[in-house]
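Re: [help] complex structure
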Amino acid sequence: MNAELPRRAWLRQNAAAVAGLVFGGAATAATRRAASPHRLVWQIDPKKCVQCGRCMTNCVLVPSAVKCVHNFDQCGYCRLCFGYFDPGATELTTAAENQMCPTGAIRRRFIEPPYYEYSIVEDLCTGCGKCVKGCTTFGNGSLQLQILHHRCVQCNECAIARRCPAQAIHRVPVEHAYRMKSQAASVTATWRHKEDGPAHA
Amino acid sequence: MSERFEQSNLSSWQLWSAILRGVVAGTGFVLCVAGAVLALACLQLRHADPLNSPARLEAIRAAQQSPQNAELVARARELDLLARRAFFAQQYLVRRGGWILWIGAALLFGALSGTRWLQPRVVVPGLDTSPEERVERERRAAQRALTLYMSLLVGGAVAVGLVLRTPAPAVSAPLRTPSIAGEATLAPASDPVQSEEPLDDLLAQAWPAFRGYGGRGGVQSPAPTRWNLETGEGVLWKVEVPRHAFSSPIVWSNFVFVTGADSRHGAIYCFNADSGQLLWEHEVRDVPGSPPTPPKVSEDTGLAAPTPATDGRRVFAVFATGDLIACDFSGRRRWARNLGVPKNPYGHASSLQIYRGRLIVQYDQETGGRLLALDPRTGQTIWDVPRDVKAGWSTPVIWTAEGRGLAAVLANPKLIAHDLETGRAVWQVEHLEAEIGTSPATDGERVFAGNEYARLVAVSATDGKELWSSDEDLPDVASPLAWNGCLFTATSGGIVTCRDVTDGRRLWLQEWDEGFYSSPIAAADAVYLIDRKGLARVVRAARTFEPISENPCGEACGATPAIAHGRLYLRTARFLAAITGAPPAESASGNTSAP
Amino acid sequence: MPKRSRIWAWSWTLVVAASVLVASGVQRFPKPDFRSGYTVPQYTPPAVERTAAREWLDVGLLTGGLVLAGYFALARRSRRGLWILSVASLVWFGLVRKGCVCPVGSIQNVVLGLVSPADGIPWTVAGIFLLPLVAALVVGRVFCAGVCPLGAIQDLVIFRWRPLPLWLRQFLGMIPPTYLAFAVANVAVGAGFWICRYDPFVGLFRRSGPAGLIALGWILLLIGTVVPRPYCRFLCPYGVLLGWCSQLSRRHLTISPDQCIQCRLCEESCPFDAIRVPTPPHPDRAAARRRMVYALVLAPAWVVLGAVAGWAAADPLAAKVHPDCALAAELRTEESTGKKEQSWETRVFRASGRPLEQAEEADRDARRRLRRAWAWAGAWVGGVFAVRRIALGRRSELADYVPDRGQCLSCGRCFAYCPREYVRLGELDGIRGQP
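Output below.
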């Protein structure tokens, strides 16, 4: 009985060594095949985004790490901003009933006739995407939803990505952590035979 | 024994113990209350969103409808403010609540461990009277428990399988999109996605590869002959392709696929054939074996000169890096492999062909050229034939003889016909020494091949016996077209020749100022010739010269158009356009009367 | 239909005007030329907080934690050291780093990287996955005792426990391999990261998350006061891998610092029932051998049964598991009822202009892969079951009290129960009846 114990120990140690070698070898081979130098972060592709509003409610954080950002370079500085004003607005003023944003997170500043600058107050923005929908449908699409990386905790499985109906959220290399639409990618399609224009419910 | 065991008798420790119990009870109570409040707040945040409360929305709507009514406006603003306050208060509560719970839990569990610390439990084990039987009993019970687990798992799974069994897709009506109006031929006779059967009968009606199905260069149904891309006349849509390339568009169902590339990465683009909307783009990255930097290619070849191909389920594209990629129609990569960076002085340009579930890749290079047939589902090689030829830029043409598929593959210095089942060479024609840029053509009985500095030959498709040859006005970029008993060739010097297919006799010759890179194609009895400046000439496919129309495309054009479902899809230097040729008078007024 | 306001009507004219502009290939509303000297601001998004240095720091801290834990468990034999280390890990990896990516979740990243090399495995993630396993091969599951924040939070709430009967432990102990197998299968077919999705404690670390999961976390902690570490023992999929590595570990924590005196004081010291007590020889060896042969013969049948179970359950559950199948199911319902665009998913699909056949094909493809993956997972669970069943029948004759290498988390609680430990520490001179 006593002889059995050292034999067992010896067997186990050898098994451990063999397992370690096999395991290490397999792991090295596997990581060599799949290892990637890219460090990845989650981000929304605004070209795919349909502004369903789930970014606001599905993030594990309160408030969501998704916010609207404004790419000024693409903005038309319109007096009638389709992201700022509610479709029912009767006057182009900053009154609450005229604003699209439910939390008043967009600031409107007069520049010169007829141009206004619009900027987002990050702390007020809920990421609901209402303004983005207006701007994308009728305007230049300069307002866009993005995951802000000083808020995002980089869940291993992004809870928003899982519920995104347009599969617009992907892991992207950290060097390109933001995917904002640029001017070059703006819509160039001609809709000559589409009399109905952009759909609006 | 250690001190700790003795200390438990001291009364001061009992006092501490009582205090700690008090703490436990207190924090436990507070924690329960805090938890309940937080749970409520979470539920509220999820289900009663104050920003979208009906009261607020209703008040705002009322204020908008009667902006003069100061009372309604004031009420809307007041409710709006209240809603915002409620919303941010909720958020604050949820954010802080987590910490409250943590602190409470730390107190509670700390106190709990304290009581345990103060009253250590030393178990003096009782005497085990019959260990053998006890151990045996326990182990038998454990084995039974394991078996129970596995039985529950298997039983549960099978029960789920039987009870929750949804009707299999094959039983319930499979999802099917109604085909494009007026395109009855598009509707598949049997459901094509049911099986992986090749869809060649359907592919023959689409434009699945360079110069159409099998590279035959035409369709029997007519296509528009009048349009103007500068004014938009007869144009259904026109969109800019994000990345440029010299490759040509292909069409399947209501998808148009093109490729493009910048200096580093190639990409596949998928457009909606009805609207021109860019449905997806797939950038080619991270292909195993792909070179870190793309090979040097000449400016007028680019990384994406080969035209993609589709088998009706996937789209395939090859690039000058040697990357060959397959995407499904939603733009997801199905497989990708690198065929080895081609040794080609200008850059790889041979396009892909598809035939009966085989993806045919002509991969000629300076040394070690190959002809491959791949499985479209997996990208695995079915056969791989080495080729003793020099680098070339030609694409195979495919025809069927006695039920088997044959491909004529041209390169410097010979034309070889391969059996597509096995890859075996069936016949070959030699003495075609030149840099070959054109692809062969076939009318099913004969195969035509020719390039400037070599010669133009017509051979029998069955045995490769030479029928005739010619040395005059040879094409060098645009490939020949055999249609309606005529062989059309267009040179980059601007000469278009029509020859009789049987004896090579010249029927007519026309000389224009501008040369041709785009290969001639045909629809019904019209031949489309697009010169390098982008003027599209349509002539009758007949033994006498008979012009039909001249249609400006607005800019330079080197790609060969695609014809499918009565539309012409044209790629110019920057744009992709769909041409219906419908008389434009009606729709012009329609635009101004929009809502 | 509500009356459309004047401004909105005006906007339609603008849109029509804009579409003319669009036709010429410019923006709908071109960037104005400002005469007042206004310069267009450049929006710079906030920088990524998680830098490479920070990720490598975490890998470094994980390595350091493992080394320290090994030192405390084997060399120092210090329960207190392990406790402090685990609290520090809970604070750092849990409360500060908020959980992701942890070795438990990294299983999925590794599987994803292996099935689709395009996604790749970042080096830091590969390290986080491998380091605790390597440590387990050398010194046992010290990761569980000292470094894992999920383990630490449960360890801190342990209050009173009773030994769980062997049959219950074996029954519940089959859950982790099942969970592991199906989670891996789901990753491989693109059905998401289920281990992360249903992680009960990460919500507590972040102090926010889905309410249901946070509630589950607190409930597990409450259960954990009397059933120590319920997640580690009866759910954790990474624990399966750690257990295997630990079985083969080169060295391992011991209850007695030198030799066991069979005093039985440690018998109920382990909250995790991970102490193997000396077992007497089998009363009826022939019967035991017969049963063993029987179990060996039955093993392949269980593997096949497991595969069948996985295969059978995959199809009916596909729509709940895989997004492609869910979409096709929704589209099918819409087609049969005639009510189109009932959800965002179908709305987006229909707007994309893709034919329905594609959803059908994606569904069919996903189902095929799911069936195959689940069949493998089921077969594997069957295999684990068969091995465990055989192991229960095997009786190695054991003289001393030793930790069960697969189950022992190396927490060091048993040290304080061993009289020899007090001799080692110099608190006792010797034990009566012992040298």
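Chain B has two domains: 3-118, 201-587.
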